[in-house]
Amino acid sequence: MLFSTIGDYQWRIAERQLHLFYTASQDDWALVRGFCTQVPRRVQITANRTDDFRNHVESLRRRWIVTSQIYNKYKQIFEAIGKSLPDSNFRIKRKARREVTSTELYKFIWTFYCNVKAAFPNSIDEVVSSSLLLCAVTDYCFHEVYLSEPSLLTEDGRNAFKQSENNSIIDRMCNDFVKMESTEAKRIRDYHVKPLLKQYFIKGVLKAGLENDRGIFEPSVFDSNHKSINNEYDAYFLKQGEYDNRLFLENSLPTTRSIGDRTPSKIAVVHRTPSELSHKVKRNLLKQLEESMIPQTPLSNRNYLPVKTEEDFIKRTPISEQADILNRLNLLIHNYRTEPSQELEKILRKFEPKIREDIMKIQKKLSEKFIEAYSNGEQNALVFAEEKLEHGVKLFYRIFELIVISEADKRCSDIALRNIVSNVDFISATFVISLEIVLNSYGSSDRKFPWVLDALGLHSFMVGKVIETIIMHDTGLSRTIIKHLNTIEETMLETMVWLKTLLSTIS
Hints:
Helices cover 65% and strands 0% of the residues. With 507 residues, the chain is an all-alpha fold. The longest helix is centred in the N-terminal third of the chain and has 31 residues, at 51-81.
């Protein structure tokens, strides 16, 4: 037999659960939660299956966790700016057309966000990009509400638009809710959301109730727009969607029925208050996210970790944790450019001009490979790729400068210093680590290490040699980044270096 009896049985259970996950309705929410917790463990038991399925299941689970965190953030934004939702269930039968209700607005904005997110699959797994995209979408929608149905906004929300410049409150949402700079959110709004909106109006997916493609929440066109947005997402979900993100709109979630349980559903009814239910769901999600996304401290290189501050002991959500990592990265590279600084230029002038040109040539060559691998031929992903590349290049020149200046201060001989700044392996490895730090700061799960090695075509042995050097010289790196670098260093030493060396020897 090709598979053992036990292995084949576990595999059939996994296949059944995967089918339920793809076809789950709002009443099957417990099945979805059971899938995200049980399937990965059961699939690991079946060792004679390919890694593709296991990787796909893990990616599916992590994306669901990220989306749940984004939805919780959306609820916070809506409660602060939009009118409070009624306590009754979302399923409200509509009568004759009247003004838009807060429930309809709540469902429309989330569905619209799901559509925009589906148009940019390369950002779907990143906590940071998803949060910034949420700010861009809600900013546009709440401005439309302010034009058509201002009564659906809180007094604070209406005052925010009155006092805002360019009819935008995206700065406030980024600062108050996701704790990030609004520059990247504005870039996403201008280069992603607005072009997609233009296509929607051209295709007739959205209709404007006012001039200049404004007024999508006007009572005369809202029903049509709401239906079209749902149909658009239905088409995406049936074609290539992995699960329906509109499941999060269901506020009555059964929690006791596990996947594969054939017990009648009436036994699964548990009377809990909404606050108790929300607390339990949040606690479980945070536990899963901490286990899968936040790296643990390795045993080596503990002496390089900065001393913990009071902020390190504050309980954070995964979004605020990732926002803090990205904000610290932005502070590190704030004064740097995508080319050598004046101090680095001063040191490089000691040598022939060819060295500076070679450094920039290596950087540009690896940058082209990164853009190509990240975008994977998708035009929509170019902005996200260029954004991360810009951060990576700035960080590269920062780290490279700190190492070179430190070696120069040690009265290193010109010959030794020249060997450092002209070493192709050292330059390439430093650039790779810089990109890995940026990807980790954005919370990318589908491009986890060693994705960057494969994308740029470098050997792990070459990259592993510079990690400790980078940690020693750049004291501005956060504890989380240092832990991540130590973790990938251990991974390379334990498996990757020896495996590739062995395979090359055998071949």
